Amino acid sequence: MNTPATEARVDPRLTARQDQLLQALQAATTELSGQDLHALLRRSSTPMGLATVYRHLRQLQQWGLVRCRHLPSGEALFAPTERDDHHLTCVDCGSTRRLPHCPVHDLELPRGELDGFLPLFHTLEFYGLCPACRQRQAAQ
Amino acid sequence: MNTPATEARVDPRLTARQDQLLQALQAATTELSGQDLHALLRRSSTPMGLATVYRHLRQLQQWGLVRCRHLPSGEALFAPTERDDHHLTCVDCGSTRRLPHCPVHDLELPRGELDGFLPLFHTLEFYGLCPACRQRQAAQ
DNA sequence: GCAAAAACGAGAATGGTTCTCATGTCACTG
DNA sequence: CAGTGACATGAGAACCATTCTCGTTTTTGC
Protein backbone atom coordinates (compact mmCIF):
# COMPACT_ATOMS: atom_id res chain seq x y z
CA MET A 1 0.00 0.00 0.00
CA ASN A 2 2.17 2.78 -1.25
CA THR A 3 0.65 6.23 -1.34
CA PRO A 4 2.11 7.95 -4.37
CA ALA A 5 3.57 10.86 -2.44
CA THR A 6 6.26 11.50 -4.99
CA GLU A 7 3.83 11.76 -7.85
CA ALA A 8 1.62 14.02 -5.77
CA ARG A 9 4.44 16.40 -4.86
CA VAL A 10 3.54 19.54 -6.71
CA ASP A 11 6.58 21.64 -6.01
CA PRO A 12 9.51 20.12 -4.17
CA ARG A 13 11.33 23.44 -4.18
CA LEU A 14 11.39 23.99 -0.45
CA THR A 15 12.29 27.24 1.21
CA ALA A 16 15.09 27.21 3.77
CA ARG A 17 12.53 27.21 6.58
CA GLN A 18 10.54 24.35 5.14
CA ASP A 19 13.71 22.39 4.61
CA GLN A 20 14.80 23.07 8.17
CA LEU A 21 11.46 21.77 9.43
CA LEU A 22 11.51 18.67 7.24
CA GLN A 23 15.06 17.84 8.21
CA ALA A 24 14.18 18.14 11.88
CA LEU A 25 11.40 15.63 11.34
CA GLN A 26 13.63 13.30 9.38
CA ALA A 27 16.36 13.49 12.00
CA ALA A 28 13.98 12.66 14.82
CA THR A 29 13.51 9.01 15.67
CA THR A 30 9.92 9.56 16.80
CA GLU A 31 6.97 11.59 15.67
CA LEU A 32 6.94 15.18 16.86
CA SER A 33 4.14 17.54 17.74
CA GLY A 34 4.04 21.14 16.61
CA GLN A 35 5.03 22.17 20.11
CA ASP A 36 7.93 19.72 20.07
CA LEU A 37 9.24 21.12 16.81
CA HIS A 38 8.91 24.66 18.08
CA ALA A 39 10.88 23.82 21.22
CA LEU A 40 13.48 21.95 19.17
CA LEU A 41 14.01 24.66 16.57
CA ARG A 42 13.98 27.36 19.22
CA ARG A 43 17.42 26.16 20.22
CA SER A 44 18.82 26.20 16.70
CA SER A 45 20.86 29.00 15.20
CA THR A 46 17.77 30.06 13.26
CA PRO A 47 14.84 29.81 15.71
CA MET A 48 11.37 29.39 14.29
CA GLY A 49 8.19 30.86 15.71
CA LEU A 50 5.22 28.69 16.55
CA ALA A 51 3.05 30.22 13.84
CA THR A 52 5.68 29.49 11.23
CA VAL A 53 6.07 25.92 12.41
CA TYR A 54 2.36 25.23 11.97
CA ARG A 55 2.19 27.17 8.71
CA HIS A 56 4.89 25.09 7.11
CA LEU A 57 3.70 21.83 8.61
CA ARG A 58 0.40 22.36 6.87
CA GLN A 59 2.14 23.22 3.65
CA LEU A 60 4.39 20.19 3.77
CA GLN A 61 1.35 18.09 4.56
CA GLN A 62 -0.47 19.37 1.52
CA TRP A 63 2.55 18.47 -0.53
CA GLY A 64 2.52 14.94 0.77
CA LEU A 65 5.92 15.25 2.44
CA VAL A 66 4.63 15.08 5.98
CA ARG A 67 1.91 13.00 7.55
CA CYS A 68 -0.04 13.79 10.65
CA ARG A 69 -2.01 11.71 13.09
CA HIS A 70 -3.95 12.62 16.19
CA LEU A 71 -3.61 11.08 19.60
CA PRO A 72 -6.74 10.56 21.70
CA SER A 73 -5.59 13.64 23.62
CA GLY A 74 -6.12 15.65 20.45
CA GLU A 75 -2.43 16.36 20.07
CA ALA A 76 -1.24 16.12 16.48
CA LEU A 77 1.98 14.25 15.70
CA PHE A 78 3.96 14.75 12.54
CA ALA A 79 6.37 12.52 10.66
CA PRO A 80 7.87 12.37 7.17
CA THR A 81 5.72 10.30 4.82
CA GLU A 82 8.78 8.36 3.74
CA ARG A 83 8.46 6.53 7.04
CA ASP A 84 5.69 3.97 6.64
CA ASP A 85 4.94 3.56 10.34
CA HIS A 86 1.75 2.33 11.93
CA HIS A 87 0.77 2.27 15.54
CA LEU A 88 -1.21 0.71 18.31
CA THR A 89 -2.84 3.42 20.37
CA CYS A 90 -4.40 2.96 23.78
CA VAL A 91 -7.75 4.68 24.18
CA ASP A 92 -7.22 4.84 27.88
CA CYS A 93 -3.74 6.19 28.59
CA GLY A 94 -3.09 7.37 25.05
CA SER A 95 0.26 5.64 24.73
CA THR A 96 1.24 4.47 21.28
CA ARG A 97 3.49 1.67 20.12
CA ARG A 98 5.00 1.33 16.72
CA LEU A 99 4.27 -1.90 14.91
CA PRO A 100 7.40 -3.68 13.73
CA HIS A 101 6.20 -3.66 10.13
CA CYS A 102 3.35 -2.35 8.02
CA PRO A 103 0.29 -4.37 9.06
CA VAL A 104 -1.56 -3.81 5.84
CA HIS A 105 0.39 -6.68 4.35
CA ASP A 106 -0.79 -8.92 7.14
CA LEU A 107 -4.31 -7.90 7.94
CA GLU A 108 -5.10 -10.70 10.34
CA LEU A 109 -3.02 -9.26 13.15
CA PRO A 110 -1.23 -12.23 14.67
CA ARG A 111 -1.55 -12.61 18.42
CA GLY A 112 2.19 -12.42 18.83
CA GLU A 113 2.32 -9.07 17.11
CA LEU A 114 -0.26 -7.62 19.45
CA ASP A 115 1.73 -8.71 22.48
CA GLY A 116 -1.10 -8.20 24.91
CA PHE A 117 -2.61 -5.19 23.20
CA LEU A 118 -6.38 -5.52 22.88
CA PRO A 119 -7.63 -3.94 19.64
CA LEU A 120 -11.03 -2.30 19.98
CA PHE A 121 -11.29 -0.63 16.64
CA HIS A 122 -9.16 0.74 13.87
CA THR A 123 -9.19 3.72 11.57
CA LEU A 124 -7.97 3.83 8.02
CA GLU A 125 -7.86 7.28 6.52
CA PHE A 126 -6.54 8.67 3.30
CA TYR A 127 -5.39 12.26 3.15
CA GLY A 128 -5.03 14.19 -0.03
CA LEU A 129 -6.68 16.75 -2.22
CA CYS A 130 -10.27 16.64 -3.36
CA PRO A 131 -11.07 17.51 -6.99
CA ALA A 132 -12.37 20.97 -6.08
CA CYS A 133 -9.20 21.93 -4.24
CA ARG A 134 -6.94 20.51 -6.94
CA GLN A 135 -8.78 22.60 -9.49
CA ARG A 136 -8.68 25.73 -7.36
CA GLN A 137 -4.96 25.31 -6.68
CA ALA A 138 -4.23 24.75 -10.35
CA ALA A 139 -6.13 27.92 -11.23
CA GLN A 140 -4.07 30.07 -8.89
CA MET B 1 -10.39 -6.87 8.74
CA ASN B 2 -12.81 -7.28 11.59
CA THR B 3 -11.82 -5.75 14.85
CA PRO B 4 -13.13 -8.02 17.59
CA ALA B 5 -15.21 -5.34 19.25
CA THR B 6 -17.66 -7.85 20.64
CA GLU B 7 -14.98 -9.87 22.30
CA ALA B 8 -13.44 -6.70 23.67
CA ARG B 9 -16.69 -5.41 25.12
CA VAL B 10 -16.10 -5.69 28.82
CA ASP B 11 -19.50 -4.68 30.07
CA PRO B 12 -22.30 -4.19 27.59
CA ARG B 13 -24.67 -3.19 30.36
CA LEU B 14 -25.17 0.37 29.29
CA THR B 15 -26.76 3.02 31.45
CA ALA B 16 -29.77 4.85 30.05
CA ARG B 17 -27.56 7.81 29.19
CA GLN B 18 -24.99 5.72 27.40
CA ASP B 19 -27.71 3.95 25.50
CA GLN B 20 -29.26 7.27 24.52
CA LEU B 21 -25.91 8.44 23.20
CA LEU B 22 -25.22 5.24 21.29
CA GLN B 23 -28.67 5.23 19.74
CA ALA B 24 -28.26 8.82 18.61
CA LEU B 25 -25.04 7.80 16.86
CA GLN B 26 -26.65 4.75 15.30
CA ALA B 27 -29.64 6.74 14.11
CA ALA B 28 -27.45 9.38 12.47
CA THR B 29 -26.50 8.81 8.85
CA THR B 30 -23.19 10.62 9.28
CA GLU B 31 -20.52 10.87 11.91
CA LEU B 32 -21.19 13.35 14.68
CA SER B 33 -18.92 15.52 16.77
CA GLY B 34 -19.30 15.92 20.50
CA GLN B 35 -20.82 19.32 19.90
CA ASP B 36 -23.25 17.86 17.36
CA LEU B 37 -24.41 15.24 19.82
CA HIS B 38 -24.81 17.80 22.55
CA ALA B 39 -26.94 20.00 20.30
CA LEU B 40 -28.95 17.00 19.16
CA LEU B 41 -29.65 15.63 22.61
CA ARG B 42 -30.33 19.09 23.97
CA ARG B 43 -33.62 18.94 22.09
CA SER B 44 -34.61 15.53 23.43
CA SER B 45 -36.92 14.95 26.37
CA THR B 46 -33.86 14.10 28.45
CA PRO B 47 -31.21 16.68 27.53
CA MET B 48 -27.60 15.80 28.13
CA GLY B 49 -24.87 18.17 29.25
CA LEU B 50 -21.70 18.60 27.26
CA ALA B 51 -19.52 17.13 29.97
CA THR B 52 -21.70 14.02 30.09
CA VAL B 53 -21.61 13.65 26.33
CA TYR B 54 -17.83 13.58 26.30
CA ARG B 55 -17.63 11.43 29.40
CA HIS B 56 -19.76 8.72 27.87
CA LEU B 57 -18.23 9.00 24.43
CA ARG B 58 -14.88 8.19 25.97
CA GLN B 59 -16.39 5.31 27.88
CA LEU B 60 -18.13 3.87 24.84
CA GLN B 61 -14.89 4.25 22.95
CA GLN B 62 -12.98 2.29 25.54
CA TRP B 63 -15.60 -0.40 25.24
CA GLY B 64 -15.13 -0.58 21.52
CA LEU B 65 -18.69 0.48 20.75
CA VAL B 66 -17.78 3.83 19.28
CA ARG B 67 -14.94 4.88 17.03
CA CYS B 68 -13.45 8.31 16.68
CA ARG B 69 -11.46 10.00 13.99
CA HIS B 70 -9.99 13.48 13.75
CA LEU B 71 -10.44 15.92 10.92
CA PRO B 72 -7.50 18.09 9.92
CA SER B 73 -9.31 20.86 11.80
CA GLY B 74 -8.78 18.87 14.98
CA GLU B 75 -12.48 18.22 15.40
CA ALA B 76 -13.25 14.68 16.52
CA LEU B 77 -16.02 12.75 14.82
CA PHE B 78 -17.73 9.75 16.36
CA ALA B 79 -19.56 6.79 14.85
CA PRO B 80 -20.63 3.33 15.99
CA THR B 81 -17.94 0.74 15.31
CA GLU B 82 -20.53 -1.50 13.65
CA ARG B 83 -20.30 0.83 10.69
CA ASP B 84 -17.14 -0.07 8.80
CA ASP B 85 -16.75 3.24 7.02
CA HIS B 86 -13.60 4.74 5.57
CA HIS B 87 -13.00 8.14 4.15
CA LEU B 88 -11.07 10.36 1.81
CA THR B 89 -10.12 13.54 3.60
CA CYS B 90 -8.87 16.71 1.95
CA VAL B 91 -5.89 18.26 3.70
CA ASP B 92 -6.83 21.61 2.27
CA CYS B 93 -10.52 22.21 2.85
CA GLY B 94 -11.00 19.37 5.29
CA SER B 95 -13.96 17.86 3.50
CA THR B 96 -14.38 14.13 3.76
CA ARG B 97 -16.03 11.63 1.48
CA ARG B 98 -17.13 8.17 2.39
CA LEU B 99 -15.71 5.39 0.27
CA PRO B 100 -18.39 3.13 -1.22
CA HIS B 101 -16.86 0.07 0.41
CA CYS B 102 -14.09 -0.89 2.77
CA PRO B 103 -10.85 -0.31 0.86
CA VAL B 104 -8.85 -2.74 2.90
CA HIS B 105 -10.18 -5.49 0.71
CA ASP B 106 -8.90 -3.68 -2.34
CA LEU B 107 -5.67 -2.06 -1.36
CA GLU B 108 -4.64 -0.83 -4.77
CA LEU B 109 -7.18 2.00 -4.86
CA PRO B 110 -8.63 1.91 -8.37
CA ARG B 111 -8.60 5.21 -10.22
CA GLY B 112 -12.35 5.09 -10.62
CA GLU B 113 -12.85 4.85 -6.89
CA LEU B 114 -10.78 7.94 -6.27
CA ASP B 115 -12.87 9.94 -8.69
CA GLY B 116 -10.40 12.77 -8.96
CA PHE B 117 -9.25 12.65 -5.38
CA LEU B 118 -5.46 12.84 -5.15
CA PRO B 119 -4.14 10.75 -2.27
CA LEU B 120 -1.10 12.25 -0.57
CA PHE B 121 -0.79 9.92 2.35
CA HIS B 122 -2.84 7.61 4.49
CA THR B 123 -3.08 6.70 8.12
CA LEU B 124 -3.89 3.32 9.55
CA GLU B 125 -4.38 3.27 13.28
CA PHE B 126 -5.55 0.67 15.71
CA TYR B 127 -7.21 1.73 18.93
CA GLY B 128 -7.53 -0.44 21.92
CA LEU B 129 -6.10 -1.15 25.33
CA CYS B 130 -2.44 -1.65 26.09
CA PRO B 131 -1.42 -4.45 28.46
CA ALA B 132 -0.81 -2.07 31.36
CA CYS B 133 -4.26 -0.54 31.13
CA ARG B 134 -5.97 -3.90 30.72
CA GLN B 135 -4.23 -5.07 33.83
CA ARG B 136 -5.06 -1.95 35.78
CA GLN B 137 -8.70 -2.07 34.72
CA ALA B 138 -8.96 -5.73 35.64
CA ALA B 139 -7.53 -4.99 39.06
CA GLN B 140 -10.11 -2.35 39.83
C1' DG C 1 -36.73 5.44 54.07
C1' DC C 2 -31.82 6.63 54.48
C1' DA C 3 -27.15 7.13 53.90
C1' DA C 4 -23.33 6.40 50.75
C1' DA C 5 -21.93 6.40 46.13
C1' DA C 6 -22.33 7.60 41.61
C1' DA C 7 -24.03 10.53 37.86
C1' DC C 8 -24.96 14.96 36.30
C1' DG C 9 -24.29 19.65 34.27
C1' DA C 10 -23.21 24.77 34.33
C1' DG C 11 -19.55 27.26 33.90
C1' DA C 12 -14.60 27.91 34.38
C1' DA C 13 -10.15 26.35 32.95
C1' DT C 14 -7.04 24.23 29.72
C1' DG C 15 -4.17 24.01 25.86
C1' DG C 16 -3.14 23.08 21.10
C1' DT C 17 -3.77 25.54 16.98
C1' DT C 18 -4.86 29.55 14.19
C1' DC C 19 -5.21 34.45 13.39
C1' DT C 20 -3.66 39.34 13.43
C1' DC C 21 -0.76 42.61 12.25
C1' DA C 22 3.43 45.16 12.71
C1' DT C 23 8.03 44.28 11.32
C1' DG C 24 11.79 42.10 8.64
C1' DT C 25 13.71 40.23 4.39
C1' DC C 26 14.63 39.95 -0.30
C1' DA C 27 14.65 40.58 -5.25
C1' DC C 28 14.15 43.91 -8.54
C1' DT C 29 14.15 48.64 -10.66
C1' DG C 30 15.69 53.00 -12.08
C1' DC D 1 22.36 52.83 -3.68
C1' DA D 2 17.32 54.41 -2.16
C1' DG D 3 12.72 52.95 -3.49
C1' DT D 4 9.18 49.62 -3.87
C1' DG D 5 6.24 45.85 -3.64
C1' DA D 6 5.58 41.07 -2.49
C1' DC D 7 6.27 37.83 0.66
C1' DA D 8 7.93 35.70 5.15
C1' DT D 9 8.11 35.96 10.01
C1' DG D 10 6.77 35.77 14.95
C1' DA D 11 4.80 37.71 19.43
C1' DG D 12 0.82 37.67 21.35
C1' DA D 13 -4.16 37.56 21.14
C1' DA D 14 -8.03 34.92 19.81
C1' DC D 15 -10.37 30.70 19.08
C1' DC D 16 -12.68 26.65 20.31
C1' DA D 17 -13.11 21.75 21.25
C1' DT D 18 -12.42 19.34 25.20
C1' DT D 19 -11.69 18.62 30.12
C1' DC D 20 -12.09 19.88 34.88
C1' DT D 21 -14.46 21.58 39.13
C1' DC D 22 -17.67 21.27 42.29
C1' DG D 23 -22.20 21.78 44.11
C1' DT D 24 -26.56 19.40 43.15
C1' DT D 25 -29.39 15.51 41.87
C1' DT D 26 -30.23 10.72 41.19
C1' DT D 27 -29.44 6.00 41.99
C1' DT D 28 -28.01 2.07 44.71
C1' DG D 29 -27.68 -1.01 48.61
C1' DC D 30 -29.68 -2.26 52.69
Summary of the model, kept short:
Chain A has 140 residues and is α+β, with helices and mostly antiparallel strands. Chain A has helices at residues 5-8, 16-27, 34-42, 50-62, 111-114, 131-139; strands spanning 32-33, 66-70, 76-80, 87-90, 96-98, 118-129. Chain A binds a DNA duplex (30 and 30 nucleotides) through residues 15, 17, 33-35, 47-52, 54-55, 73-76.
Net shape of chain A: globular
Strand content of chain A: 15-25%
Helix content of chain A: 25-40%
Largest interface: A-B, 53 and 53 residues
Looking at how many chains there are and whether they match, the oligomeric state comes to: homodimer
The spatial strand order of the largest sheet of chain A comes to 1-3-2
The biggest beta sheet of chain A, please? 3 strands, antiparallel
Number of strands of chain A: 6
Rg on CA atoms of chain A, Å: 17 Å
The structural class of chain A is alpha+beta
Q: Distance between the terminal alpha carbons of chain A, to the nearest Å?
A: 32 Å
- Low-confidence sequence ranges of chain A: 1-11
Q: Helical stretch count of chain A?
A: 6
| Mean pLDDT, all residues of chain A | 77
Helix and strand pattern of chain A: HHEHHEEEEHEH
